[in-house]
Amino acid sequence: MFSFFEKYRKIIITGAILLLAVLALVTNGKKLNATVVESAIGFVVTPFQDLTTGIGSWVENTLSSNREKQDLLDENEKLREELAALQSDNQRLSLYETENEKLSSLLKIAQKYPQYASFGTSIIAKNAGSWYDVFTIDKGTSDGVEANMVLVAPEGLVGKVLESGATYAKGQSILDSRSSVPAMSLRTEDLGVVKGEYSLMSDGLCKMEYIDAEAEIMVGDEIVTSHLSDIYPPGLTIGKVKEVQTDTNGLTKYAIIEPAVDLKHLDSLLVLDKDSTVQTITPEETTSAEDEAAEETAVTTEEDENS
Fold this sequence. Notes:
It is a single chain. By secondary structure, this protein is α+β, with helices and mostly antiparallel strands. It folds into two domains: 1-112; 113-277, Thrombin, subunit H, CATH 2.40.10. The protein has helices at residues 2-7, 9-27, 36-112, 198-201, 283-306; strands at residues 116-126, 134-137, 150-153, 156-164, 169-173, 180-185, 191-195, 206-212, 222-225, 237-246, 252-259, 268-277. Helix 2 runs antiparallel to helix 3 (36-112).
């Protein structure tokens, strides 16, 4: 029915107007009372006028309502698109912020060891399993990466480079059963060696062995790399002591270590090259160099004046 009135809307409205005009002419006059014929016509026409007026109003209201509904649908779709764009921008900014925080943290580590050459890298693959015991990074010999270079994350030591190809390298974390890192308690300076152990790797833990039986190491102590390594710089955070036990021989202790780095979720790392040192200038050396330069300038000026 709606489509019929929509199709013949103009015709219906025009007919209604003409009919009303005719009725106005017929009923127009000085007589106060309608004739029988006029009354009969009014009796027949009036309901039709009411019907056509009601239909016209209904058609107009329906069309107006449909237009408003379509406008609302269009506006809703536009708002949805804008919301999706804002959410996408927010996620992108969040990723940028997270990446910036990681890079800033890695930069702080690099600044802690300014004497060593360092550069960032990303993990592109890993061995099967939940933990990062052996993995692949996106830097190789063409970037200066070689075996035994140290891998660190913002929280501390990850491991070292096992082998290097032209454009990639294999990394080994401290969880790997082949890993062995000279270590010590930061609080007591008791020495030991942190090793990966297959039975502990499933829990993300490693083991510190060869601790002296008289050592005062205890649960909660921070474990760092010691000065007894040819590979690892001293002072890198390894983790904290979770448990301390005495070996069966009674001569040594061992400790279960919880790594400081989340070795279940790794992404960006810093490569430290302990064999490639960077010359650093201390503030005292800078001041001395400035004094020497000032003296040379003064002597040159005096010679020019004498000449």
